[in-house]
Amino acid sequence: MAATGVLPFVRGVDLSRNNFKSDLFPKDVADMSSLRWLRLNKTSLEMLPDELSSLSKLEHLHMARNNLIQIHGDLPTLQCLRTINVRHNKIRNSGIPNDIFTLDDITVVDFSYNQLSGIPEELEMAKSLLVLNLNHNNISSIPQQLFINLTDLIYLNISDNKLETLPPQLRRLGNLQTLILDNNPLLHAQLRQLTSLTQLQSLHLRNTQRNLNNVPPQMDALVNLSDVDLSFNHLSGVPEGLYKLSSLKRLNLSSNVITELSSAMDTWVNLQTLNLSRNKLSCLPSALCKLTSLKRLYISCNQIDFDGIPIGIGKLMNLEQFVAADNNLESIPEGLCRCPKIKKLILTKNRILTLPEAIHLITDLEVLDIRDNPDCVMPPKPMPQQKGSGVEFYNIDFSLSHQLRLVGALPPTPGGGSPASKDPLARKLRLRRRRQESMSRAQTKDQAGEQAKVLKGMSDLAKDKNEGKTSGSDEQEEVKPKSWLDALEKPQLDYSDFFPDDLGQIEGLTIWQIENFVPLMIDEALYGKFYEADCYILLHSFLDENDMMQWKIYYWIGNSTSLDKKACSAIHAVNLRNMLGARTRTIREEMEDESPEFLALFDNEISYIEGGTASGFFSVEENDHTLRMYRVSGTQSLHLEAVAMEPEQLDPFFVFIVDIGMTIMIWYGQRCKSLTKSKTRLLVEKINKMERKNFATITMMVQGDETEEFWEALGGVTDNFVIRPWVGSFVPEKPKLYKAGLGMGYLELPQVELPKGKLVQWLLETKNVYILDCNADVFIWIGRKSTRLVRAAALKLSQELCSIIHRPNCASVVRVLEGTESQVFKSKFSGWDDVLAVDYTRRAEAVLKKPAIQKDAADGQSEMKTDLSALFLPRQPSMPSHEADQLMEDWNEDLDGMESFVLEGKKFVRLPDKEIGHFYSGDSYVFLCRYWVPKDLPEEGEEEKKADTHEREEDEDIDNEDKDDEEEPEEDFQCTVYFWQGRDASNMGWLTFTFSLQKKFESLFGDKLEVVRLCQQQENLKFLSHFKKNFVINRGRRRLSSAADSEQEQSLNPSFYHIRSNGGPLSTRCVQVHPTVQWLNSEFCYILKVPFRNQDSKGIVYSWIGSRADPETARVAEDLAYDMFDDTHSFQLLCEGEEPENFWWVALGGQRKYDEEAYYMHHSRLFRCSNEKGFFTVSEKCSDFCQDDLADDDVMILDTGSEVYLWCGPSSSEVEKKLAFKSAQVYVQHMRNKENEPNRKLAVVRKGREPWKFIRCFHGWGNYKTAPK
Description:
With 1269 residues, this protein is an alpha/beta fold. The protein contains 22 helices and 52 strands. Helix 13 packs antiparallel against helix 14 (956-965).
């Protein structure tokens, strides 16, 4: 296009990350005759564009990260060229024109990351060169003439080459400030010439084979040196010259063999970064504490222990990062936690046992890494001071005192004693006595004061008479009434969105223009030029006679302005006065009727311009919607690519949106992803709601079911048209964000650097205008506070940018105002979403019943209902033996008879008498129990019985007589059917019982029948009492008499039984467990059957009695052994310590260490945390709990006496996990405050990964029960 637009006024443009391969470079760049800088990074250029020859004023050229092999061309003709940056290309020495260095103004040359084998020829001719970067090439030598001519060099980087020596002429670079020689084999180079570089500030000698013998001598002469890198060398110590450099700010000595540091390091008072990693240091000198400017300290991979860190390290008030990984630290000094600015603590791979409690007091700490410290225990975190635990825990107050108060208990006092009781009567008497005393004192004081006043008045009067004065001669001062303006209390309002805070502090004139209800500051170049359809606010700041700052505020109204601008100009003028605190009034000025004082501000030179900005009110005109079709891809975030509205664009792997105004059609390809479908539908719903006011029609269709309207919108389709995949592996092109810049007579278009390559909303500043280039869509985002000229310039630039770069034919330019962004524009940004948060835990009924007026979020935070009372109740005590025996005797006396059945196949058969009390985990059993029940007495008899009971309390003899006269109750019976199901049995047994035996029993007993379903190890005490402690649970299924082969096979496996009582003797069970030594405990008894391959004897049965076992349990173990096995086995009673070798090695896999005490039996408690009641509750299981009590949909708390485990079921909700964790913390704190209770540690376990200390609290632990079939 001809150079008639804005291109000749463009001073700089960034065209990076465009594809200019295969002659796609825009020809219109040649029209930018005023171009000063040009960036063409990452544009796939393979050769120098010919259009550069037309840029005669070009000064800075950047072509990094391309595919350039040579830069021959018209570069030498660009006489104004100053910077050449062609790093990360494939340029060789032959590809560099020699005459390029003869340019007079060339100051920056960057040929790094190329394929140069030597210094470019005639480089020494660039005598004005300031920056030379040749790193990452193959240069092996430097000509001596180079540094003779380039004496003005400030920056020199020749790292990562093959240099073995440096020319002595290097000392001539007296202005050099940065020298980087990293990764060069400078073994024999002494580098003595470096001491002549007195202006040197940065010196990098990384991996240059330095040691104490070839380090540059007299480094203390480099007094300006602030950055030194000597890492990856062979230094055994710090060079002495470095200790004398007080100007050092960054020192890197990592990856050396330094063993100690001198106390002379206290001279580094300005040091901010010190890296001593990967050395052989065992301690740090105390002089380190004097480096008060130190911000970053790295000492990883050394041999430093706790004593190696100086105690006074807390004096480093500016320390932000402390990295000490892979050392021998047992802890860190508490002073390190006192560093007020510490943000990062890396302590991995140490021997950390604990950390100071002050670690929780570091307010700015962002990273704390203590991984690979297996013995580390974090100190307890102090309780938060806020009421409740915050929104994250639903504002529930989990403090111990609050929870104790809820259950009616007294909170613990710090001293451990009970709080002193308050007597209200005594307090009232004390207050009354104190009041009487204070009143008497005040009365006495008033009397004395009155007497003193009278005496003073008399003395003053006598003195005045002596001096000849009278009271009438005194001049009374006139008291002025307080002004209404002074009495008016001004509200504290925030005007920072409209006016800067430092406004009005400098003399001069400031002008704002009203646009979209907001005042926007205009440039000084536009002062005195007023648009007829606009309004302006003017602030005149000046000094008065007393050198006090004064202000005058005007608001100017044009003849053609709208009503909203008139009102806003007057309102914001008052706001400006209030912000300044000025006592002046606002002055109204109208077009063509300005006051002389107003005209004097512009020297009587003002001009009117026709036109102005649009009104801020919404217009009632219907918007014209542009017909567009978008190809939608992606699952995590949607990517919308505008494509031509043609049927050929359809692809079965994608979703397409066809927008034709008030009808939006969504087309789903047959092979598109379901998540993309859902998100596309939500996006279209938002477009309809936000941009079409819910008036648009949304039509969805799948491939093959298209409507005629759809094909008509795409221009029609032929009968034989078939949709085929053609896009392939589509990778969305990354968008480019430009910031429009405007100066005096020039335009600039630099790119905005995207954090992590993603667009985020905070990049858009309200004072600027941005151009978002998305290839097929070019958006112009206009900030609310941007100026009129910048907006006009950005609009022109966007049109030029859209035309000069190759784009699809459907490309368009869209204007976007701040606050009115479209959903397509928002979809380009990460995290810019208008979706309202939805509480999916609430039912629809609850949502419909919401109040009409919603409370404020901060005011409506009410505490969620909870019930944690079970945590504070005492542990259920174990039932005494005599009480258990009495209960067992009573229940068995009431038992008239018991019939037993077992499920065999598909029917229940009678259980042999010898198998009663022997259960199998894979079977189901039925027990019909008939109980004797005394018949209830008549009502009169009950009254007589109560009277007799009262008399018995008074007189024992009368009680005995009444007892004899008492009527004998008539007999009655009650039948209870116990259905017992093993943990490995299926539900088929229960179904069979329900449809067979239960109906038969109901027909026989009627209302006198009660059915109780029991699960393994969850039996009630009455049922257990009928077996008189002979309750054996075997693993597997019951063996039938016909299965002789199976019996012979199973009898060859050892059987191991654990006898244990949970909560009392009545709950004594003998449960088969996995044969391992780990189950043994000195407080229990066990039965072990070791099989033999002998026809005379089937094996031996051991009754193992622990040294601390209860004698009654030992008797039960001995009786059970004889009852469980027949005479074909031999029996042996073993006391702990008398075991034969056969006991250990044949059955238990070898002798190993086992537990010698079961203290957890006296402390273990199991709590269930659930919200099934509609609120969070904690309930305690009985002391006879088992593995099946661990519910998958709940969270359990297990107290073992030394640990508190939080067991999380796989189906439990996040709410239950959060609240259960806080509840466990409350429980641990409560147990710490109780006397004679050991301290407990809190740990979290998951299902299937329980530790042994958790498992041993459950009798007969095995594999988890699978879902019933």
